[in-house]
Write a structure and sequence with these properties.
Blueprint (H helix, E strand, L loop, with lengths): L2 E6 L4 H12 L6 E7 L6 E6 L2 H7 L10 E7 L14 E2 L9 E2 L4 E9 L2 H10 L9 H15 L4 H11 L2 E9 L6 E6 L4 E5 L2 E5 L11 E4 L4 E6 L2 E5 L5 E2 L4 E2 L15 H7 L1 H12 E2 L2 E2 L8 H5 L3 E6 L1 H18 L3 E5 H4 L10 E7 L5 H12 L3 E6 L5 H5 L2 E4 L12 H20 L5 H23 L1 H10 L5 E6 L2 H17 L2 E6 L16 E6 L5 H12 L4 E7 L11 E5 L8 H18 L18
Parallel strand pairs: 19-20, 19-21, 21-22, 22-23, 24-25, 24-26, 26-27, 27-28
Antiparallel strand pairs: 1-4, 1-11, 2-3, 2-4, 3-6, 5-7, 7-8, 8-9, 9-13, 10-11, 10-12, 12-16, 13-14, 14-15, 17-18
Helix pairs in contact: 3-4, 4-5, 7-13, 7-14, 9-13, 9-16, 13-14, 14-18, 15-18, 16-18
Bound molecules: 5-amino-5-deoxy-1-O-phosphono-D-mannitol.
């Protein structure tokens, strides 16, 4: 969950590393550090606790560190408290002071992931005379590389491969060897890392935005592979030390999409990018008004024989699965189960033979989702991944990938990726329904038309965002919020509630409106804010009556509904209307005011909207 950047070329490395790290700061941010090499001089390591700007100030934005080869890291603590000593890079020798300064170590490195057996390895290294200065698992792995390097004759490939065989867990490792100036060595297992090349320059990063400004030509380093980076060239090796050939891929993302472009926060920028994310996702697969079934990797016969679909994801990705469940079951009449990846992977997986597992992930690197995918594959079940990041682990391992076209998403709180995932779920449902004959051709075309109309409707909601801001300003001191709804409205409540708690730190819960009476209602007291989402005509009266029940116990009610449902004003204190659409797709519209509410509440409380405390964008550890 940390961020890694490396550079070797003809320019000064430190400013490039700091710039790259600033694009990754959302991945982890309790400390940061860089190691820079100037020719054959030993690496100079500088670290600091706190945000990246502390490191930038300390090094005059990298200008005080000379050298054209270097590695950098932003940390999200797993082993050892956030401190300068525990910050990366780590060194194989004894560190001076609290971890900064010139070092004479052979190996210096940064790491993303978790080394599960580091205690056992540390014991071994202590017996061999190594001394430890930090509480991290990373220091152990760096010292283990040094141990093998010295034992087996100064060969980085061999030393790294031997280390990889000994360690258990996940890692993206980025190393420099004192006796190999001008080279960066990398290795990975179950932790993301890409390598970019440009004219005479080579970059490595744990995530695309870090290098997007410099190059879009990338190599994907596979699991259990090693690479040697020199200016403009990369050589790959397997665990046996044999060279592997790889093709370059081109990233289609635009470098500007990872910039704020005048917005105060990435979250607000990404909220406004939702119409484009939807249009781009539709345009990628809908040709002449139709979807080609092969984009889902299934034949008509296979769709007709599907006995079950299991949708797996975490957080908001899971929430899009809940929406898809309602839509798919209603349209295509296929039983759908929606599973939290972290639970699913440790349960007895009952997956019928003619079933499909759909894993949903923005990053394509979420550890639990990746593991659930692997287990489904091991059982011989067909898998489809709905993923945003091209070339990510989930995208590479699934039988088939449906890429959402949201572009880089920087804010920790997902918005545009969520919206694009909903579109993927709708397309899957509509197409399967047509193939199975549960909707007519006419209905299919009508629903496709509705999908294309969603972006303009979102624009319309965004035009009126100040009204939400005004409402939220009045609620700035709210303590608890309850989101209630039925059916698809309940599914969108799950997302609205998550948005609120993750960025504004306000306790919130999403409840199926009919469940309130079974316990939660006791929490309602004078002034408790309850937000009722009511977009489904057939469920309107039912939810309104649940809202009346909480109102009579003192709740302050906000209603979120579609234009036309004006009767809601008889019950609620404040109403937000969204445009009408096919009722299967209302989540795409009703989620927008809920995202805005979370955003404005976070801003009004003076919080860090894009980088909420304790959270990271990609959860690459379980
Ligand atoms: O990258 P993924 O889509 O697999 O991430 C899953 C969740 O971690 C993610 O949706 C998380 O819940 C968001 N921060 C919510 O805004």
């Amino acid at each position: 969950m940390c961020g890694i950047v490396g550079f070797v070329g003809n320019r000064q490395a430190a400013p490039i590393l700091l710039d790259g790290l600033s694009k990754l700061e959302y991945r982890g941010y309790d400390s940061a550090g860089v190691a820079i090499r100037n020719g054959s001089e030993p690496a100079k390591v500088v670290k600091s606790q706190g945000r990246l700007r502390v490191l930038a100030e300390k090094t005059d934005n990298g200008r005080t560190l000379l050298g054209t080869c270097g590695i950098g890291h932003t940390r999200w603590a797993t082993h050892g408290e956030p401190s300068k000593k525990n910050a990366h890079p780590h060194v194989s020798g004894n560190c001076t002071g609290s971890g900064s300064g010139d070092v004479e170590s052979e190996v210096v490195g940064v790491h993303n992931g978790i080394i599960e057996n580091y205690k056992e390895l540390k014991e071994k290294l202590l017996k061999h005379g190594y001394q430890f200065y930090s509480q991290t698992d990373t220091e152990t792995v760096i010292k283990l590389v040094d141990y093998y390097f010295k034992k087996y004759g100064d060969d980085p490939v061999n030393a790294i491969a031997k280390t990889m065989v000994r360690v258990r867990g996940s890692y993206a490792l980025c190393l420099m060897f004192k006796s190999h100036p001008g080279e960066i060595w990398v290795a990975r297992k179950d932790s993301p890392m890409i390598i970019g090349v440009a004219d005479g320059e080579t970059y490595v990063a744990s995530d695309v935005p870090a290098i997007l400004e410099y190059t879009r030509q990338v190599y994907y380093i596979g699991n259990l592979e090693i690479a040697r980076l020199v200016p403009g060239e990369v050589t790959f090796f397997n665990l046996d030390g044999d060279e592997i050939r790889k093709e370059l891929s081109e990233i289609s993302w635009d470098a500007n999409s990872a910039q704020l472009e005048g917005y105060e926060h990435f979250m607000m920028k990404e909220i406004h990018e939702q119409p484009k994310a939807i249009t781009d996702t539709l345009s990628a697969v809908v040709k002449d008004g139709r979807i080609d079934l092969s984009v889902f990797g299934l034949t008509e016969e296979e769709v007709q024989n599907l006995s079950q679909i299991t949708i797996v994801g975490c957080g908001s990705a899971y929430h899009t699965g809940v929406v898809t469940q309602y839509v798919m079951e209603d349209l295509a009449k296929i039983p759908v189960r929606v599973e939290l990846a972290s639970e699913f992977r440790y349960r007895t997986m009952l997956l019928p033979p003619n079933s499909l597992v759909v894993v949903v992930s923005q990053s394509g690197e979420t550890a639990d989702t990746l593991e659930a995918l692997r287990q489904a594959k091991e059982k011989g079940i067909r898998t489809l991944a709905i993923v945003n990041v091209m070339g990510s682990s989930i995208a590479r391992e699934a039988d088939k990938v449906f890429y959402t076209m949201a572009g880089p998403e920087i804010a920790v709180a997902t918005t545009k990726a969520y919206s694009a995932q909903l579109i993927a779920g709708y397309l899957l449902s509509i197409e399967f329904a047509l193939v199975r004959g549960t909707i007519s051709e006419e209905k299919y075309l009508e629903m496709m038309g509705e999908l294309w109309a969603l972006p303009a409707k979102i624009e319309k909601i965004l035009e009126d965002k100040e009204r939400i801001q005004w409402f939220v300003a009045k609620q700035a001191n709210v303590q608890d919020v309850f989101f209630i709804g039925r059916g698809i409205d309940y599914a969108v409540c799950l997302e609205g509630s998550l948005k609120m708690k993750e960025i504004s730190y306000v306790h919130s819960e999403a409840y199926a409106a009919g469940e309130l009476k079974h316990g939660t209602m006791s929490l309602i007291e004078d002034g408790t804010l309850v937000i009722g989402v009511v977009t489904q005509k057939d469920l309107f009266d039912k939810t309104i009556s649940n809202m009346s029940e909480v109102k009579s116990r003192g709740a302050y009610l906000m209603g979120l509904t579609t234009y036309g449902h004006y009767a809601i004003e008889d019950t609620v204190h404040f109403t937000v209307y969204v445009p009408k659409t096919d009722e299967h797709f209302t989540a795409s519209l009703s989620v927008i005011p809920l995202q805005l509410m979370g955003y404005y509440l976070s801003v009004s409380r003076g919080l860090d909207v894009d980088k909420p405390r304790n959270l990271a964008k990609s959860v690459t550890v379980e």
